[in-house]
Design goal:
This protein has 313 residues and is an alpha/beta fold. It is built from 14 helices and 5 strands.
């Protein structure tokens, strides 16, 4: 019997979720040589510059908090620059700050929490379902608490004043940007989504005051989207960012920030619960835009509904 059939039978019985042995690991995983981050920092400390030493001490003293902080927050806490934080990460053998956080989290947390922060290794399927759904609902409730209605109003104003909207997102943020693109089209807003990092840079540099930008990034530290947003801002575009609560490099280039609140940066860079919060913000934004352009929005919705009706039996 194949492994897949074994897994299916176990799932049907509601038994424990067991790993498939022999599965290949992703080449994007942090290399094993980066284990023991705090110990490495301790050994290196005396050879570091004063700024790098402050960063190393801050990370070592606040390791449990650093795994869910942005590079900006670590730089502020250590009294150093973001560039100095990234430079220290590379001295340790990491590709950047996000890589360091994942390696540090692997030193501090149970491996199962890299899958989902609330799970335990022996959780059965009903327990997994309950924890994952509760986590999603918690993200929505927490996001509603930190989401500023005034910021949403400014975002609506910026989009309605623009001749065109461009939407940026990479990785797990890309589907959220694509969903926002689809929904804006349904209410008659001229927009395009760009999820290729090279195309983002080109498109952003060709924007101007007549363009509004909506960037989606959970961490606010993704190089590609930070760069694209900066280029668009420098070209004169108005910028709106959907990102997790807390300071991050992306926010330096944002006219308006719509905050989510999700805990997952604590253990991983891939978005899970934050996608639900991001989609909640997108839904709210589309609803506000549609109400602000009520007659035109309804007309476009009806027209596109008729078109889409030909796609269904």
């Amino acid at each position: 019997m194949t492994r897949r059939r074994h897994a299916t039978k176990a799932a049907a019985r509601g038994g424990h979720l067991k790993p498939v042995t022999g599965a290949k690991t992703s080449g994007r995983d942090a290399p094993p040589s980066l284990a023991g981050v705090i110990e490495r920092l301790t050994v290196m400390r005396e050879t570091l510059s004063p700024a790098a030493r402050r960063i190393a001490d801050f990370i070592a003293d606040n390791a449990a908090d650093v795994v869910h902080m942005s590079v900006t927050e670590v730089a502020d806490g250590a009294g150093a620059s973001e560039g100095s934080v990234v430079a220290l990460c590379r001295q340790l053998g990491a590709t950047g700050f996000q890589h360091l956080k994942i390696a540090l989290a692997r030193d501090l947390v149970q491996p199962v929490q890299l899958i989902h922060e609330d799970l335990k290794r022996d959780d059965d399927i009903p327990t997994v379902l309950d924890k994952v759904f509760q986590s999603g609902m918690q993200a929505l409730q927490d996001t509603l608490k930190v989401l500023d209605p005034a910021a949403m109003a400014r975002a609506v104003e910026i989009i309605l004043a623009a001749e065109r909207v461009e939407l940026y997102g990479v990785g797990s943020a890309a589907p959220v940007a694509e969903d926002a693109h689809y929904r804006m089209l349904r209410i008659g807003i001229d927009c395009k989504v760009v999820i290729d990092s090279h195309m983002q840079a080109i498109s952003a540099s060709l924007t101007g005051p007549h363009v509004a930008i909506l960037t989606v990034s959970h961490s606010g530290s993704t190089l590609e989207t930070v760069t694209a947003t900066r280029l668009a801002k420098e070209a004169g575009a108005r910028t709106i960012c959907v990102t997790n609560y807390g300071r991050s490099p992306l926010q330096a280039h944002a006219d308006v920030v719509l905050h989510t609140m999700a805990r997952e940066t604590k253990f991983r860079t891939e978005a899970m619960t934050s996608r639900i919060a991001q989609l909640g913000i997108v839904d709210a934004l589309i609803a506000c835009l549609a109400l602000a352009t009520y007659d035109d929005a309804l007309k476009t919705i009806r027209r596109t509904f008729d078109v889409l009706s030909t796609k269904r039996f």
